[in-house]
Structure formats: structure tokens, C-alpha cells
Amino acid sequence: MNGYHHLTSAQLAALAAGATDMAALAELGESRVSRHLLLLLPLIRGWVGDEGERDTAVSVLEAVQEADPQVFTWLIGDPMVGAWLSRTSRERTRTGDFLELGNFAAAAALRAGRDCRVTGWAREGRLVIPTMGTAVLGDDASAPVRIDVSGGAVTLIGSSGVGTTLVEGRNWWPLRQLRARWDGLERAVRIEDASPFRGGYHAAPSDRLDDDEAAVWQSRFAKAWSLIGRHLPDRATEIALGLRAVVPLIDSGDGSSRSATARESVGALGASRPTSAEDFAVTIVHEFAHSKLSGVIDIVPLYRPGGTELHRAPWKKDKRPTSGLLQGVFAFQQVADAWRCLAAEPALAEVARAQFTDLRDQVRVGYRSLAASRELTPAGAEFVAVLGAAVDRLFDEPAPRAR
């Protein structure tokens, strides 16, 4: 178990059962912040490039952390920041990845209302300021760029020495937000369609959405959030706390929806264009379940690393390692339960009952393989036993009829 962060036995059992435990979810978020900080330190110590540029960016971050620790903590915990830190710590050779520290410092200064002058990195003519947006430069070069933040305005100075102030609609793409409200519970989730670190899924991320496409996502998100709020209120509460970004994925063109969660960007989900509001609602529940379990595993090892077992999973053509099967059973148990609840929506009753019936059968098959695994740790065995009780509850009663 992680020596700094801790989940009690009751919290671990609640998470395994699919219950909403806000204290446990807060601990998962704090653990993610610690993980990112641990990745940031070796980046600073193993710096590749001009150490003066590093020290300037670090000074900005230290000033923000001291003056406004909530801003710093929120920013360092962001999924795209985590993806950047994970990639840089893994590769350790790309000067541009290290200079993204300047982009990160500029974001911290902007959010804290401070001025700064740092050196960042533009990739193929675009400079991304994490959680805020993308500057579109006049060429396709990848190069260092000085970032001046003053009074909330941003000016970029490239190798020519000429400054360019960022203006929305001309050379600045602010990150769009998917916004929705249900019964006083409001949710705003970023559309991450420009960050160079938004990949890591089984499908490639799409380029920036045009206005019409963004409007489609907004409409379906608002309807999906309404479904979640009406029929899955506990899920709505936890998703409002933990989901921060959606990464649009390239559409395969076969009419199917794709979605995924990347381990290095927990708190974000990747998805192709949702085919319907109910599809989007279930996708959000599905991928947020993966995020929760990834957070749990960061604190409490549930299976032994390097295992060689392979298991049949009804939702996959190939056999899955214990780690993958655990993720699948945990997430699909919550998806099946979501369809059970959505069957109370008259317009969805028939399709929801069919989805629920099929999925609970698949989850039971997958669970039997998981429970037989010899690679579970003692904590993992306890977690899986509680998860099994949640799977059994799917069979306690037939799918509900429409009201």
C-alpha cells in the first residue's frame, strides 16, 4: 500500500461495491496530485536544456504554490499535465518536452493572476497552455518561444524577436467546455482537442473540432448529463468531482462508438463522437469507472505485477491479463447497473433492458475467471469478493419496467 495515501477497508469495500464514497474519491484525487509531483521532481533534476530557463519556470511555480496553493494543486492534478509528465519521465531526451515546463508555468501564472516571463515550447506551429488553450503561430516550426504574461494578456516572442499578443478568433483557440446542469448540479468538462499529450488510446485523437461538431458534442453531453442526473444521481455526484476532460477520438466510420481511459491521464476520457445521449451517458459512467479503479491501484496493489495469467473476457476477442480483466469486470458491472437504471426512461426502456440483460451475463462470466485468479493480492481478493456481491445483485431482480 502507498505509504502516504491510504484507503480504509470500508472505503475500499465501498469502491468495490460501486458505492459513492466522497472521502475515498477525494483521497484518489490527492494521490493523483502526489503522483504528478513525484514525476515533476525528476524532470526538474534531470533537465535537458538551458538550466536558466528551467529555474525561471520553477520560480514561477513556487510563487504560485505559495500564494495560491489551490490553483497549483488543481493544475498539477490535471490529466493532460499528468500525461505530459509521464511521457517526459519515460523518454527524457526531448528538449521540447522539458520546455513544456514553461507552458505549464504560464498556465499557473494566468490562473493565479500573476505576471511572468518564461520560455515554453511550440510544436509544429502551436503552443499549448495547459487547461487553457492553444496559440496558433505563423509557421509550422517546433521551437522555443518566450511567453510573457502581463495583466492577464499573453504575448509570444519567437526567434525573430517580434512579439505577438494572443487574441481569441485570430491566433488563440481557447479550450471549449461541455456544460450541463441538472437539479442544481452543474458540470463543465473541457474538450481536449489540441494538447500534444492527449493520445494514449486505442484510436487516434481527432484534430480540433469545428464549431458545428463542437455543438453536436455539447447537445449530446447536456442530454447525457440529464439522464445521469435523473437516473444515476450517485454517479452524477462522483463524475462531477472527478471528470475533467473529454478527448475526441477519430471516428472509425463504421457507425460504432469507441471510448477508452489512459492510465497516464486519469480524469480524462477518450471517445469518438457519441451516437446518442444514452450512449454518451453510459460511456461516461464506463470510463469514469476505469479512472476510479486506476486511482485505487495507485494506492492499493490489487494484483501482483508481471503476472502471466490470461483470461477469457466476453467483451474482448483476445484473452486478458488479470489487470485487464479486473478493469473490465469492475467497469462493466457499473455499466450494466447504469442500463438497469436507464430502463426507467420510457423512450429507452426496451434497449436498456436488452443491454442490461446481455451485460450482466457477460460480467458474470468475466467475474468467474477473475475470482479464480491466483495473481490477486490479499487486498485484491477482498476487493474482488465485494465486487462479486455487486455482480450477484444484478441478478436479484429483473430489469425494471418503464414507468
Automatic annotation (TrEMBL):
<dbReference type="InterPro" id="IPR026337">
    <property type="entry name" value="AKG_HExxH"/>
</dbReference>
<protein>
    <submittedName>
        <fullName>HEXXH motif domain-containing protein</fullName>
    </submittedName>
</protein>
